Every structure is written in structure tokens, then in C-alpha cells.
Amino acid sequence: MQQKCSCRFLCGADTSEAVLQRVEKVLESKQECQTEVCFYKKGGAAFWCLLDIMPIRNEKGEVVLFLFSFKDITESRGKSHPGDKKEGEPWLAGPSPCHRRRFLPQNVFESKPSVPEYKVASVQKARFILLHCSIFKALWDWLILLATFYVAVTVPYNVCFTGTEDSPSAGCFALPGADIALNFRTTYVSHSGQVVYEPRSICIHYVATWFFVDLIAALPFDLLYVFNVTVVSTSLVHLLKTVRLLRLLRLLQKLERYSQYSAMVLTLLTSMFALLAHWMACVWYVIGRTEMESNDPLTWDIGWLHELGKRLEAPYINSSVGGPSIRSAYIASLYFTLSSLTSVGFGNVCANTDAEKIFSICTMLIGGEVLSAGLFSWSRGQIRAF
């Protein structure tokens, strides 16, 4: 309505100036008031109004709002004063000299009338319930995110390059288990926008969303080494551990939550691009090793690993002895995938066989899609800003 709360825009010829001054004084002193006053409607018709002014305080006791209540009492005043009405005219009584005031019923033991408060309602929550927007939960989420990136880097590297048995550490079991336990006691925001504190509802919501993904990613496959399970090969155990990469699906939540922070989104997207290049470097090395082992070691020497060994003066002997070091092979693989994803390859590490060329084509297609998607998102953001 964009009008002053002193209600002078409702005044007319029969409106008492004393009542209006009293209303302004009440507003300045931030007090409660109830009075009867003659106001005028938009069409010019006069009516008697019971005006209630109630200050609303916040949790600090400061008045932040005023609640105005208007009640049309013209008919009730007309019935109570039938003799004052003239024929052919609407009855309007003059303002009461004492400005009668009605008080809300209150407890006789209360020293002050009940005044509404404008503040955040305190919610009774169960013990050991963690707020989803607390500082501890934010730090914990970033710790889990860093641990997830560590797993996403080390697991594919061990599967493709080293193939050695890992010594299980306590952190491999403690962090995922603790994260699952915390998620069972962490609040969430419902579809209606309310924060849910009830433990039973929290458990049902977590089980229906991310529980099984977190549970599969937290399975301790390293215990197969501890109990000396010999029926399972080392490579198979490494492949089983790749299910931990399912936790990367949580990044979708992070991107949605921090979508308003452009620097945060850029950091996460850059990390995902580097992680994609790392994974494809592991696949590129596996392709070279597989083709080397599946062909005749005496006559076949056209793979990219053979070419790398010749340039580094560390050639392969019988496809199993010699060759470049693991560090050199990984750096060359990462160099090739990054140059292919960004379409700036120089040809010093190139594809020679059919399998290597097919993988190179897929890498360049993925890189083109990623770059075009990023350019489209940037252009859309610039258009929105304009």
C-alpha cells in the first residue's frame, strides 16, 4: 500500500485530530493502543473503525514491526445510539471523549500483557542432532570431499599402473563409517522448505536417498588382504575398490548447493576436468600394456609404449622387461590425454594402433563436448548478467 502507518490517508472531515496525534505518539513511544476513530473509505463513505495497534518485538526485546487491526463498528455504534441518527443520513457519532479502550483478557498473575514476538521459533530437537548448515558439517563435508578425490585418484592409478597390494589404513574404514553415522543424525530441508529435526524422518530420508551409495562405497575390500584371501586376485580386488568412486555422485549436491558462488563452481569443475584426464591417462596406459602383452614380443613394436621406451633409451625386452619407468609412463599418458582433451596435441605422443586411435577419437570428442558445454554455460551467464 506504501502509505504512512499514521493512517492520515484515511482521514476526513469528521476524523478527530486528537486521535491521530495520539496514534503518532503511540508509534513514536512504541506502545500498545486501542481506540475508536472515524475513517473514510476510498469512495468517500465514512465509517467508524476500532483501531488496534500492537508492537511486535524480536528476541532482543526490540520493536521491529507494528500490527494494525481495523474493524468496522459503524453498525454496532448505530444500534447503540439510535436516537442520534437523522433521517436520510448515515449515522456517525462523534469521537468518544475518553477514547474507550478494550483490553485483551489476561492472566491476573501476569505483570505484563502478552505481546507478540517476531523471531525464529525455537524447535525442540532430539539429542545429538547435527544441523546441516553448521560450521562443523561444512568442514566435515569438505574433508569427505577431499578424501573422495584422493580415492578417485589413487584407486584407478593402483589398478592400472602398480597392481600392488595396498596396506589398509584405519582412515579407509573410519571416515566412510563416521560419515554414514553422521548422516543418520543430520537435519535436512524438506520439499516444503522446513528443516526436519525428527530422528525417524531423518533416517527414512537418508535411507531413501544416499545410504546405499555410501554403504557400497564404504565396503572394506582391503580386509581381503588382511585375512589372506588367496582365491581373489589382486587385480580383482583393485577393480572392486573402484566402486568407491560412487561417492563422486555427491559432487552433484555440492554443485547445486554452491551454484551461487562462481569461484567455488569453477574450482569444482576444474577439479573434475583434471580427474577426467587422470582417469583417461590410466585407460591409455592399460591399452598400451594390453596390446603389448597380446602380440608377439619379437615382431610387434609399434605401440605408444614402445615408442616412448625408444625415445627415453629404455626399450622393452620381450614386452616384459625394461621399458620406461612407471612415473615416466604416467606423465606421458597424462600429457597425451590433456593435449587431446584440449585439442592442442603436438604429436610427440601419438596413437599408432587401431585401439589407440579409437581411444584418441573418443578422447577428442569428450574434450570437445566438455569445452562446448563450458562455453555455452559461460555465454548463458553473460546473457543473464546483461
Automatic annotation (TrEMBL):
InterPro entries in the record: Ion_trans_dom (IPR005821), K_chnl_volt-dep_EAG/ELK/ERG (IPR003938), KCNH_animal-type (IPR050818), PAC (IPR001610), PAS (IPR000014), PAS-assoc_C (IPR000700), PAS-like_dom_sf (IPR035965)
Cellular component per GO, a single term: plasma membrane
Transmembrane segments: 128-153, 215-240, 261-287, 329-351, 358-378
GO molecular function: voltage-gated potassium channel activity
Its membrane topology: Multi-pass membrane protein
Cellular compartment(s): Membrane
Protein name stated in the entry: Potassium voltage-gated channel subfamily H member 4
Species classification: Eukaryota, Metazoa, Chordata, Craniata, Vertebrata
